[in-house]
Amino acid sequence: MNFGARFSEFGMTGAVFWIAQILLFTVGTGHIHGADILAWTEHYVGTDSTQSSVLQDATGSLLTVFGLIGIFVTGMILDMIGSIFFMQEMRIFGRHINNNQDWLDGLAGQCPASINQDYEDFKSEFSESLTSLKERFRHLFDPRVFYRRLALRFHFRHLQTYLLSYIHVYSDNGSSDQLMDHVHVWRTARAISMALFIIAIEAIYLIKDFSFDWLFCEGSDCTRPEWVSMILIHLALLGLAAMLTLKSYNRMCYSLFTLACATNNSKAP
Amino acid sequence: MKTHQSIHILLIILIGGVSWLPASSYADHPHATQAVMEQTRPNTNDSMATGTEAGTIDSTAALSTAAGAQGDDTEESPSNAGGAAKGCAAGAAVGTALAPGVGTVAGCIVAGIWGWLW
After folding, report:
1. How confident is the model at residue B29 (pLDDT cuts 50, 70, 90)?
2. Residue A135 CB-half CA count within 13 A
3. How many structural domains comprise chain A?
4. Which domain holds residue A227?
5. Do A234 and B93 touch (CB under 8 A)?
6. A171 vs A102, A174, B29, CA distance in Å?
7. Is residue A109 exposed (0-12), middle (13-18) or buried (19+ Cβ within 10 Å)?
8. Average pLDDT in the A27-48 region?
């Protein structure tokens, strides 16, 4: 494991999560004031002015270390939880499979039977040419489609790992920096969007007194129900979370499939 | 029962749990909300102006009062539209993330009912 790179990734995502939590509880809801946090820290950790300066420095350093470890672990947990949008990621992956099936058919034919079977199952499930607009709309509200696609999640991981391994083994340059960058960006964006998703759910229950007066008080109607602000914040956070994950995943898929195709072509006699 | 059906049932229970936790511990009823708004706003301003902890203490008291009001009102009227709406929103968010369409509807209905009941 590249510890430095992982530390920066997990540190950044963990920090985003905790900063968002502090903003939610201070600016968003007013449940906690910044002074309360400082007072709590001084009270429980002992950094108040009655302590000696040496003890204050030692306590401050210890608190910094605890904070860093806590942020790192939070980032790691967010990364481990993975994406709540994994069904949408599967759909994007399926779309790329469909777009590249002219050369993937040959590649999958050379693979062990299990990978070939995963590829065929995935291709038939996400084949867009078989479904009309009406059928796609019906699929949205059909639980059987959801169950069928949920059952394909292991096929999805298998195929994605296979393509990454294929590039790593057969490409002349190993895994390209571009692909690795896109993979890391996707994982980081996925963890950040998970943090935003948690904040969006919290916003439903916690934000009660946040009326956007500066935005709505143009005319005589200056009173808006509070749930309008809450729903706006909730939807904005959800939209941002989905966009971060799916955009970065789509970009990673472009690199993955393009590099796999190029590697496959370079292998051809 | 198939594995994926079991997973779906677990997800529904999870969605319901998300709606249950805050809905039962926070003041949702309109009367309770009004009590919070009336008592919290001036105290928050005082607290910001003076920098003391009085606002925080009073806000806590207001929340306690509101929670009491919720309990009293719940005995008189079982309506919990706020809890249902919040449950529906949370369930719909989780459901949409997992399966737009069927997940949205199922999440909203299940978590909404759960929020209403609890």
Report:
1. very low
2. 8
3. 2
4. 86-267
5. yes
6. 20, 5, 63
7. exposed
8. 67
- pTM value is 0.70
Q: Check the CA dihedral A140-A142-A143-A146 and report its sign.
A: negative
Which of chain B's residues have a Cβ under 8 Å away from the Cβ of A140?
100-102
Question: In the prediction, which pLDDT does A17 show?
Answer: 92
Chain A residues inside the 8 Å CB shell of B108 = none
Flag if A150 and B97 touch (Cβ within 8 Å).
Answer: no
Tell me if B61 sits within 8 A of B43, measured CB to CB: no
Same domain for A124 and A241: yes
CA–CA separation, A65 and A214 (whole Å): 41
Indicate whether A200 and A137 sit together in one domain. yes
- Chain A: residue whose CA lies nearest to B60: A31
CA dist A96 and A123 (Å) reads 10
A94 with A38, same domain? no
Interface test with B, best of A205, A213, A223 (most B CBs within 10 A): A205
B49: its two tokens? 């102006």
Which structural domain range is residue B50 located in? Answer: 29-77
User: Based on the domain organization, do A189 and A108 belong to the same domain?
Assistant: yes
- B4 neighbourhood in chain A, CB within 8 Å: 147, 150-151
Average pLDDT over residues A103-114: 82
Q: What's the mean per-residue pLDDT of chain A?
A: 81
Q: Is the same domain home to A54 and A164? A: no
**Total tally of structural domains belonging to chain B:** 2
Instruction: Quick: pLDDT tens for B36-87.
Output: 444 444 444 444 444 444 444 444 444 444 444 444 444 444 557 778 888 8
Q: Quick one: CA dihedral B1, B5, B7, B10, positive or negative?
A: negative
Q: How many other CB atoms are there within 10 angstroms of residue B115's CB atom? A: 29
Residues A229 and A107 in one domain: yes
How many interchain CB pairs under 8 A, A with B?
76
At B49 the pLDDT is 43
